Amino acid sequence: MPEFLLEVGCEELPASFVEKAYRDLADSLSKELEAVGVKQSDPVVYGTPRRLIVSFPELAATQPDSSKEQRGPSLAAAFTPEGEPTNALKGFCKSQGVEISDLRKDDQYVWVTKFQAGVPTAELLATIVPKAILGLNFEKSMRWGASRTRFARPLRWILCAFDGKRVEFEIEGVPSALISVGHRFYAPDSFEAKSLDQLIRELRLRFVEPDGATRKDMILKEILPTLNGNEFTLHNLLDENTFLCEWPSVVRGSFEPDFLQLPEPVLVTAMAKHERMFPVRDAAGKLTNEFLFVRNSGEDETVRRGCEWVLGARFNDARFFFEQDQKVSLEIFLERTHFVLFQAKLGTVRQRADRLEALTEHVAELVGVDKKLACLAGLYSKADLATGLVSELSSLQGVIGGEYAVREGMPKEASIAIGNQYEFDKNIGYQPPSGLAGQLTCCLVIADQIDKLAGYLGIGLEPSGSSDPFGLRRSVNILIAAAERMAELGTAVPAYEGIAHIATRHYMEQNIDIDAKAALESLKTIFISRYHSLKKDKSRDILEASLASLTRSEISDPRLCDFRFRAVERLAGREKFVQTATRPLNIVASAQQKGFAFADRAPLAAIDLQALNSDDGRNLYQVLVHQQEELEIAVSDRNDGEVERLLLNLEEPITKFFDNTMVMSQDETERFQRLTLAHAVALQLLQAGDFTKVLGS
After folding, report:
1. Of the residues 534, 556, 588, the one at which a domain ends
2. For a surface tag, which of 154, 205, 483, 532 has the fewest beta carbons within 10 Å of its beta carbon?
3. What is the pTM of this model?
4. Is 264 domain-assigned?
5. 290 neighbors 259 (Cβ within 8 angstroms)
6. Rounded CA separation 171/63 (Å)
7. Could you read off the pLDDT of 76-99 as tens digits, one per residue?
8. Can you give the residue range of the structural domain that contains 654?
9. Phi and psi at residue 484, to the nearest 5°
10. 66 vs 241, which has greater pLDDT?
C-alpha cells in the first residue's frame, strides 16, 4: 500500500511546543483518515524546532465504495390518494438525483439507496491535511504578513507526498511540494524527498536529526562524563535542549570562581532556567565554576566565549542585587511589600502576609503541627517579593526567602517551608521533606492556595470554559496533591471548605469586600471539575456516583473523595449488588418527591419493629444496627475494603425485604415505618456512593 508523508516547515518553534504539536497533528490526521476509511497503519512522528513530520506507512489508495440509506417523505406525503407522486416526492427525488422508479417503500416512508464511489486518497488528503495543520492549537499563536492565519510561527515550506507524488494544496501562499531543507546554517539548500526513509536519510546528511530520542542521546553522550557520578536531576532542561536544536553538540565553558559565593540556587537558576546551561558538579556533588551548553550551530570557541560573556553579565547583575539585599533584613523586606499589590481588589502583599500568618497557624492547629513555626512561615513567605534578587530572577521567589530566612537564624523547618512553597506549582507530584519540615511546607502551601482561591472567587473571577487566567484550577490541583502528601506524612487534612471559610473571614477583617458564599460555591464547582480531570482512569459514572450525595464540605475533602472513588469502583463491578442497592435509593427519592412522610434524621432510632409489621424488615433492621458503628469506623479510616464487605452484607436482606414487603403500604403507619427503614438502608449505602448513577443500575 502507498505511503503518506507530511513535513510542516516553519520558523523555530519554542521547545515546549514541538512534541505536542507533532503528536496533535498525527492524532488529527489519524482520526480524519480513519473516518474516511483509508487508514491502514499507525502514524510515525518526528519533530525539531523547524519541522513537524508525520508519516503513515500504509494508506488505502482509494476510499472504499459505500452505500447510504436515505429516508424520504412519508407515504401519505409522497403520494396522492390516487397513487400519483406529490410535489414533495418529486422534490426529494430531484435533491437525491434519482428517479421515482429507484425508490422503495416500507410501511411508513419511501427510501432510496444511494451508492457512493470511493474518492482517491490523494484527493481526500488535499482537503484533510490543510485542515489538520491549521487546526493545531498552541499556547501562543501569531499572524505574519497580511495573513489572517494563526500558527505558532510563520510557515515556510510544506512537504506532502502520497505514493511518491505531490498532494496539491496551498496554505497562505505556501504551496505543498516534494521539497524539504536541511540545517539552517550548515546545509540550508533544499532537496527532494518522496518517502519517509528518503527524508530521514537526506536530513541526517544535512545535519538535521529528526528523532528527538536520538538527539537526547547525542546530548547525554557528551554530558554524562562530566557528571562525576552525581545523579542527573535536570531532566526538564535536557528535554528543553532536545527540542531547541536540530544537530546538538556540547560546549564546555567556565565563569569566575568568585561568583560561587552567590547562593547556589541563584547560580543554578541563572544557568539552567535562563540560559539553558547545565551546571557542573565535582565528585563530591559541589557546584563548580563550569557549565555545559548545547549548541545548534557555530564554532565551539566562538560559542563558548559568547556563553561566558552572557553568563558573566547575568551573574554580575545577580551579585549586585544580592549584595544590596544583604544590607536589609527580612523584616524590612516584609514591610516593603506594603508597596507590592497582590490584586487590585484584594489588597497588598503585606496585607496578604497577615492573612497567611493567621491561616497557616489555623491549618497547623487542625493537623497538629507546631503553630509558632507555622506563623513564622506564613508571615514571611512572601517577603522575598520585595528583594532585588527576586526582581532580577523571578523564578527564585520562595527559594530566596528560604535562603534569607536561614541567614537570619529562622528555625530550619520554617525556612525550608518558605523555600519550598512553590514546588507543588512547578511539579504537582512534588514530594516534600519528611517530618516537621514537610508538614510545615504543606500547611503553608494549603494556606497560600486557599487564601488565593477565597479572594479571587470572592470577587467573581472564577474560571470559565477553557479560560483560567489566574490558575485557580491549578490551585485546587495543588490542594488535592497537598492533602495526599500530608496523609503520607502521617497527618490528615480536614475538608478544605472550613479552612476556606476562615480565609474569607480574614479578608473581611481587613475590610476587603468579597462574597464569601459565592466563593465557597465556586470552590465546590472547581473541586468537582478537578476530580473529573485528574481521575481520568475512572469512568464518568463512577465519579458521579462517588460525588453525587456529598455535601459542599465533603466535596472539598480530597481524602474522603478518593476513598469513595475506590469504594464505588469496588462495588460497581458487582452487577447484582448495584441493582439491589438502587431499590432503596430510588424508593426513598420517589417518596420525597411525592411528599410521603418518613423519619429523615436518625431513622434507626425512629423505627418501631412492631409497627413495621415485616419479618424481613426486622431482619434487615438488625443487620443495619449491628454494623452501623463498624461502617462509620471503616469510613473514618478510609478503608474501602471493609466498607465493601459491610455493604455486601446488606445485599440479601435488602432483596428479601423488598421482594416480600409492600413498602408503599396503604396503611399510613406501616408505610412510614417501612420508608424509614428504606431510608436507613440508603444512608448506609450512601456512605460509599449513590449507586443509581452507575451505568446499568
Report:
1. 534
2. 205
3. 0.80
4. yes
5. no
6. 24
7. 888 888 888 899 888 998 888 888
8. 572-693
9. -65, -45
10. 241
